[in-house]
Design a protein that fits this description.
The structure holds two protein chains of two kinds.
Chain A: E1 5-18, E2 21-34, E3 38-42, H1 49-56, E4 64-69, E5 72-73, H2 79-83, E6 86-89, H3 101-107, H4 121-133, H5 149-162, E7 167-171, H6 179-195, E8 199-203, H7 207-213, E9 216-221, E10 224-229, H8 230-233, H9 237-242
Parallel strand pairs in A: 3-8, 3-9, 6-7, 7-8
Antiparallel strand pairs in A: 1-2, 1-4, 4-5, 9-10
Helix pairs in contact in A: 3-5, 4-5
Chain B: H1 2-26, H2 42-72, H3 85-103, H4 109-135, H5 141-164, H6 168-178, H7 187-203, H8 208-214, H9 217-223, H10 228-250, H11 256-267, H12 273-297, H13 306-324
The chains are: A alpha/beta, B mainly alpha.
Chain lengths: ~250, ~325
């Protein structure tokens, strides 16, 4: 069986603009990710984990080279098409304006509904499904400001599920969670790669969690990327340098 | 929950009708006799009627402009008056009235009005862009409000300087305008004011989805397929036209833009922006109509400035919110 290629970097350079100067973070990377991959992204602070994830979903423009999403160049995809392919979970907090957990999950269906934001029966079923999978049924009408960090994280993940994308990106989702929530989060993500054949990329500093649940590890150091399988990680020099030696 | 919403809207519409009658009947020194509403009733048709309609349009435009600003800045305390946007419009009008009197554009009545409207819209647009640029540098809602306050002080200072060098007629024109009043609008003015307001409000219909998405912030709204920067630009344009237009006809009116959307979110506990746009139209009209009736009936035979009443409603609400520190 042929495995679908979800993401392909071809000689891509990534970075961002700050005060009109271009800051290049990662240069000339060549990486491929496939459906069913559960990739943990590790690297010290500031090496470009967030830049990689934000470039992947079009929040940052490419500096050079090409990026293929579902075998199409990302520059050929409209924002709405991209929204149906990649969902992202970021570290930023949102809330206020009477926003409930349900509203955020429902926003995941926005790429699919009309310009008046009308939710059809089909939209509603998908939203409910995402809420159930993430275990938010009892909390869906709570205001975002009232949710614990763990439930908030799950709400954003449910939004990403409601987006029905083949690719999911998560930027340090375990940062503010307690021990039990961390494990249940990674279990959920692993389940999604298995059952829905999603390609999930997650950046984290919890190396033990990545070793336990992920299928591959992407190591990022200054201007260098290395994609390895989990079994290779313990003997990898770079992984040990980043902190894997303490496990 | 849906049923509750229609009951609330029904109550608001009823209130609007009552407030409309109160403003028509008690909105001046003379109480109108309902038995005498023939077309010859000068006070009713030439003074009361345009003023009541003006109150409705001004309430609708300022409240929705405030709602849009609060969503764009994701700041429940934003509004055209507190962010200095109304002052920006005032300053541009001051410049154009004072410059205009030397250019003699006011000899032609219509051109004069169009000139004022355009400059007010330009002024509010420029200040909104300035505030937007500043808001990217500061994270705190309160600091943004303080900066808005400073901008409005600066605009005020330049205005004072301009007034100092102006001749008596244009100075009087400007000072009367600057106090904020619903009664300077004639029936003829309404033929300009009403259609522009209606078209601009209708334009919001195209931005229901972006408004809902913008609540999630720049990154998430991009990720669910909404072009954040483009939507934000058009929404700023809409809110500037709404603020500038009303400021051109009524002068700067305080606190409607900030208080009404807050009230709306307290009444309708929903995050859906089409509900809030509709309720802002209603609550905005009701508030200004009642303020108008109040300003004319608190003291017999005296018409108090409308800004005094709106400030008494709006300012305590903002203070209350800051104490509660809950973000609506």
């Amino acid at each position: 069986m042929e495995i679908k290629e979800c993401i392909a970097f071809k000689n891509t350079s990534l970075g961002y603009k700050k005060n009109n100067t271009v800051i290049s973070v990662l240069t000339d990377i060549n990486l491929n990710f496939y459906a069913g991959d559960f990739v943990g992204i590790v690297g010290l602070n500031g090496v470009g984990k967030s830049t990689l994830l934000k470039s992947l979903c079009g929040l940052l423009p490419l500096l050079n080279g090409q990026l293929f999403i579902d075998e199409q160049p990302i520059i050929n995809l409209s924002l709405n098409e991209l929204a149906k392919k990649i969902a992202i979970v970021l570290t930023e907090k949102i809330g206020g304006f009477n926003l409930t957990a349900y509203d955020v999950v429902a926003a995941g269906q926005m790429p699919y509904n009309n310009s008046f934001n009308h939710l059809t029966a089909k939209n509603l079923t998908i939203i409910e499904e995402a809420i159930t999978i993430c275990g938010l049924t009892n909390h869906k009408y709570k205001l975002l400001n009232e949710l614990s960090d763990g439930l908030f994280q799950k709400t954003i993940i449910a939004k990403s599920l409601a987006q029905q994308t083949p690719i999911m990106l998560l930027d340090e989702p375990s940062a503010f969670l307690d021990y039990a929530s961390k494990h249940s989060l990674f279990l959920l993500l692993k389940q999604l790669t298995k059952e829905q054949n999603k390609c999930i990329l997650v950046s984290s500093h919890d190396l033990d969690l990545l070793l336990k649940y992920c299928s591959k590890i992407l190591l990022i150091s200054n201007n260098n990327t290395e994609l390895i399988s989990v079994s290779e990680a313990k003997t990898n020099k770079l992984f040990i340098e980043i902190g894997g030696g303490f496990i | 929950m849906e049923k509750n919403i229609s009951i609330k809207f029904f109550i608001l519409v009823s209130l609007l009708i009552i407030a409309g009658f109160l403003s028509l009947l008690f909105g001046g020194s003379e109480t109108i006799n309902l038995n005498d509403l023939s077309l010859n009733n000068f006070i009713f048709w030439q003074i009361r009627f345009p003023k009541t309609i003006t109150a409705i349009i001004a309430g609708c435009t300022l409240a929705t402009a405030g709602l849009i600003l609060q969503v764009i800045f994701r700041n429940p305390l934003a509004g055209p008056y507190v962010l200095g946007i109304s002052s920006g419009a005032s300053l541009m009008v001051a410049i154009s009235i004072l410059a205009g009197s030397s250019l003699h554009v006011f000899s032609e009545f219509f051109i004069g009005k169009a000139f004022i409207v355009t400059s007010a819209i330009t002024g509010s647009f420029l200040v909104t862009l300035l505030i937007l640029a500043i808001s990217k540098k500061v994270n705190s809602n309160v600091i943004l409000l303080l900066i808005g306050l400073m901008i409005s002080q600066i605009c005020g200072a330049i205005q004072t300087a301009l007034e100092y060098f102006s001749d008596a007629t244009s100075l009087k024109n400007f000072v009367t305008w600057g106090m904020g009043s619903l009664s300077n609008t004639t029936n003829f003015d309404l033929t300009i004011y009403f259609p522009i307001a209606l078209l601009t409000l209708a334009a919001i219909l195209f931005f229901i989805k972006p408004l809902n998405a913008l609540l999630l912030g720049e990154n998430y709204s991009q990720n669910i397929g909404i072009n954040f920067k483009t939507s934000r630009f058009y929404l700023i344009l809409i809110s500037s036209v709404l603020t500038g237009l009303t400021t051109a006809f009524c002068g700067p009116i305080a606190f409607i833009g900030i208080a009404v959307p807050i009230l709306s979110r307290m009444i309708f506990t929903s995050s859906k922006q089409h509900i809030h746009i509709l309720s802002c139209l209603l609550i905005g009209s009701i508030t200004l109509l009642l303020s108008d009736a109040l300003s004319n009936s608190i003291i017999h035979n005296v018409s108090l400035p409308i800004n005094m009443i709106t400030t008494f409603i709006g300012a305590p609400l903002v203070i209350y919110l800051m104490f509660k520190n809950k973000s609506w």
